[in-house]
Amino acid sequence: MDPHFIRESKGLKFWLARPQDYDEVMAISQDIYQGNDYLPHHYHNWMTQHDRVVIIARRNGKLVALDSGMVVDGGQTVVLEGLRVCPSERGCGVAGVIQRVTDHYIKQVYPSVTTKRLTRRDNPGPEKLSKFNVLACRVN
Ligand SMILES: CC(C)(COP(=O)(O)OP(=O)(O)OC[C@H]1O[C@@H](n2cnc3c(N)ncnc32)[C@H](O)[C@@H]1OP(=O)(O)O)[C@@H](O)C(=O)NCCC(=O)NCCS
């Protein structure tokens, strides 16, 4: 069994990302943050960071999504970053699936994590926000 393979869920196969996945990750990132995406600059550094998890999803071999978490605060908190889904798969729940796989993997590997921190560009609305403690909100 390939040690990078994590699991299969909802027709997707999840893997730990490797340096050689870079070009495929960039291919799903073309339109992100109006050309100011930080991932092209940080990807290879992420591959070397201790306590960082980077997960990719593939459908029929094609890379369709990425999510990442960095474990901080002495193992108590995970900071989620980098979430993206390829344009052709958006609006079908893939972001939810990969986030659940990432949560599950991080809980397995880092059982001390009790807090998840994430940043959202959109306003998720009161129902979703009720599941979180909001730390800060910035209106541009
Ligand atoms: C934002 C993005 C990842 C959403 O992906 P998607 O698969 O189309 O998401 P969907 O609208 O189908 O939503 C499905 C699930 O993802 C969650 N989701 C959607 N957008 C999200 C976001 N920005 N952050 C966290 N979760 C998000 C939804 O809450 C939903 O969760 P649920 O299944 O638990 O109910 C995708 O549009 C994308 O890659 N955009 C460009 C990059 C980007 O803006 N990334 C977000 C950084 S915060």
Outline the secondary-structure elements.
Elements: E1 5-9, E2 12-16, H1 22-27, H2 39-48, E3 52-59, E4 62-72, E5 77-85, H3 94-109, E6 115-117, H4 126-129
Parallel strand pairs: 5-6
Antiparallel strand pairs: 1-2, 2-3, 3-4, 4-5
The chain binds coenzyme A.
Coenzyme A binds next to β5 and α3.
Protein name: N-acetyltransferase domain-containing protein
Domain N-acetyltransferase: 12-140
GO molecular function: acyltransferase activity, transferring groups other than amino-acyl groups
Description:
It comes from Silurus asotus. The chain has 140 residues and is an alpha+beta fold. The chain has a single domain, classed as Aminopeptidase. It contains four helices and six strands. The protein has helices at 22-27, 39-48, 94-109, 126-129; strands at residues 5-9, 12-16, 52-59, 62-72, 77-85, 115-117. Helix 3 (94-109) links the parallel strand 5 (77-85) and strand 6. The protein starts with a strand and ends in an 11-residue tail after the last helix. Bound molecules: coenzyme A. Coenzyme A binds at residues 32, 83-85, 90-96, 99, 119-122, 128.
